[in-house]
Structures are given as C-alpha cells and as structure tokens.
C-alpha cells in the first residue's frame, strides 16, 4: 500500500504538521513502508509567490492563517473550487465583510489562483501513485482539503480518500462524511489506533466495522463506528518530521520562516476534567488528561532537536502537567541549550514556577488569562481572580516571559457593573503585556455552553461565516461545524466599546511603558514610573512598616489581612487603608473585590516588539 498524507493550507508555514508526523510514525511501526507526504501549505505559498511574482507569498499566507479563522477567510479562498462555482460565496463574503469592516482584498487576490493550485496539488498527489490518500484537517483546512479531494476523485476515482483531524472529531466527522460523498472514510477522534486499524481493514485483515471511530460506506449505506478509547501516552509516537525539514530547507518559503519543532507532552486538560471552562471546546471528545512521562518528553525533545538542529519548540499541550515543573523542566534546563519553548499553562503561575519555565528555555506562554474581571472569570469557571491574573502578568513581565492572551466577553449574566472598577484601572496596567484583542465569545462545539443551552445560549445556529464557505443548508451544517452564532449575551456591543478602546490604548502604550522598582532596602522602595499616560516620576515608599506592607502586597492581600500582617510595625488599619488609597491614586496597585496587588516589576523590563 502506498499512502500519501496531505496537510493542506492553512497549516503554519514555520512548523511541520504534528498529525502527519504522528501518522507517519505509527504507519512505519506497523511494518508498512513510510507514507509519502504532501505539505500543501508550503506548496500553496510557493505557488502564490511564483504566480504573483512575489506580490502574494508567505507573509500574506501567514496573515490569513493567523487572522482568518473566525471569519472563515482561508476556507473561502478555496470554497469556489470546492463547489465548482467561481462565484460561490463572493456576494456573501462581501456582505459579511461590509458588516464587520473586514479587509478582504488579500483573500480575494489569492482566490483567483485557488483553482489552478488545486489542480496542481491534485495531480502532484496522484503522481505519487498512492493507493490511499489521507487528509488531516484542523481549523481552516476543510475547504482546501475537500476541494483537492474532490478533484482527485474526478481524476482517479479508484484511490480511496480518508479524512481525519480536529475537524472530524465526534459528530463533525460523521457530517463531513455524509455531506461530501467523495470522502470515502473519516476517522473520528485520535488516529494512532484507528489509522493502523483502517490500514489493516483495507488490507483485508479485519473488517471496516472494527475500526474505531470510522465513518464508511457499503452497499447498505453509511456507517459510523463508535469512537474508540482515548490513546494512552505510551502509544503516542515520536513524530517523524524528516521530509518536512528537507522540504523547507530547499523551498523558497524557507527564506521567510524560522522552522520550529512541534511536540506534545500531554493531551486533554486536567483542569477541564474537573472544571470545564464554560466557553471552551478545545479538547473535543478528548478531555481526559494524559501526560507523557517526563523522561519520554525529554528523550523526544533532545532527539528531535539534535536531528533537526532546531532549538525552537512549540508544545501543543492545552495545559502543562504540574508535575513537569518538578520532574521535566529542571532536566530541560540542565541541558543548557539555548532552547526557545512555547507552552500553554494555567494562569495562576507562581514566581518559582515562572523561574523554572525561564531556566528551561520557555520564552512564550499562553496562560489562558481571558479576563481581569473576577465575576466573569467565575462565570467561565476558570478558578482564578482578576488580581491573580494581574499578578501573573506582572511576574511574567518581570521574567521576560512572553504572554499571549485574549480578553473574552459576552458571558451570560455579566454586566457593565462587573467591569467598571477594572476598566477604570486598565491605564495603570500599560507596562504589562496587553491582550492581543478583546472579542465576544463564540459558541464552540463541545463547550459546556454548547452542551447545555440552559447555561445561557438557548438559541444557536451555525456561525454566519459558514455561509460563504459551504453550499449546505443549516440542517446539514449544524453537525459539521465548530462555531455557532447565538443571541449576544452579557455586554452589548455598545458596552464593549469602552473595553475595546482601552485595550487599543494599552497595546499602543505597552512598548514604551515601564513601572519598575529601582532600589529597595528595609527603609525605602523607589519605583520609577515611565508609563505612557502617567507623569514621569519616582515614587517612594518610605518607612520600615510601609516597606514591609508593600512586600506583603506583592503577593496580593485584602486590606484587612494586610493590616493584620503589618500591625507589628505599629500601622493601624486606617493608616493601611489610607496608604492603599494613595497607591491606587498613583496607579501603583490593582484592586478588585477587596483584594490588592502591586504592579511594579522588580527588574528592568525587556520589551520585544
Ligand atoms: S480553557 Fe484551557 S483550562 Fe479551560 S478547559 Fe479549555 S483547555 Fe482546559
């Protein structure tokens, strides 16, 4: 059997496809020949470069890949080819873009080349003479993958086509199989067990009915096998990226990217197992947390770094295993390599954990901060407060640890009153890393809000973006898509305007803002204030009692708890309250729901644009 595995646009150009790397490895482990691979994202970027004399290329590809998801822009580029209709979705996207002030010039120019590219891709894949073609599809890979699969079937109907990946999890995979008859098989759920089982069935060793999570057809019609049990860590192989690194080294796209490794040390979410964040559908049907043994992770990391001479690594885990702070990261630090690792973490990081991350070469974290408003964080079931999140932002800033986060709003029962006190204080936070944006939550499949309409989103329909991607009625779309439109909850758009404006100011001010402790001893702390929007000045905390109080406040305290802790210095509760008010007036503290936290960083900030 000659297998060709394809990852179509909009796979990131700077890293290989993890699903393809994993499926290659599990296929080889069955004793079969190594699958061939088709890195359609790189080929599309090359094609654009060539066809437009460099006017469109990797930078434009990356903009669509990173910014187009919540508007379906990448899918739309290929939607005309998918439906064999040049005009499909054009009017719908124009209307959609007008309503939202979206610039669609770039994707419109790309779309003019989509049909020719799909023709090339289909023929290049068939030129490998495959006896099975697999497409992995996540986020905006559906339309380009389906368009290419459709054309392959026209050119050679004999070659079976299988789809898998995040877009095929649960009901979405069954619906995709039903809606697109040229897709012969869909593997729903994780692939390490199901894909080799499919190969066995296609080899005649077992029955298709025995393949976990497989959607398939026979003379009786369509069948959806039950999804199997989740893959245990011991069966998650080391991904094979050899061909991708060879390809990117030779491709003109290579000049535009810094290749990165993609690893996973765990699947699922230990927090979500107990407190599923109400808006989050990220884990699909695989919430159960499964972490690899620390020695396995370090062996994979070192072997891939050595093999590909690449020190940048993205860990795709949805949340880091807390054991790793003790059992993995110190071993990574001991390598003493100049690694640059990206990890997703829980937002209540302690300073000692941040230090361990930095020592191990973790330079970028995604802590799921989501908001600084405690009542809203409670609605999310995030298990943190606004003050705790501000502390994480402060401590990551101090440790030169890049933080990516978004501000989410639109939660049922949230009100402007919840936000007022926090929004008034945002100008004091401009020296800390801002959110990339503020956005109303969309209803995600698999999330508690999706699963339980009583939580506040009783009315839902497939998100409007799918109208310019699929020529399917709502009844056929409902089971296939991930995002849903609902009646807006929580803040109105007008209410959210203030939040958006404050965040724009924050983003602009951050690169040239700092608030840092210049000097500190037992009698005085000097804080240099160079925040945009605040007068340049040095604040002095003087006297042993107030210095001790400031140190206590760095951990976050209520006024009452703080007063109790500094009573030995002779400070009364009233004096503490007055002093907190003065700090608040100077923007040196953040306070919410009776808790207070200091804002100055203890070190000179390192701002990276
Ligand atoms: S938002 Fe993060 S912490 Fe919450 S359930 Fe999803 S993956 Fe887990």
From TrEMBL:
Signal peptide: none annotated. One of its GO terms (molecular function) is iron-sulfur cluster binding. Residues 73-209 form the B12-binding domain. One of its GO terms (cellular component) is cytosol. It holds the Pfam family B12-binding. Keywords: Iron, Iron-sulfur, Metal-binding, S-adenosyl-L-methionine. Its cofactor is [4Fe-4S] cluster. The keyword Cell wall biogenesis/degradation does not apply. It comes from the Bacteria. This is Ribosomal peptide maturation radical SAM protein 1. It comes from Micromonospora phaseoli.
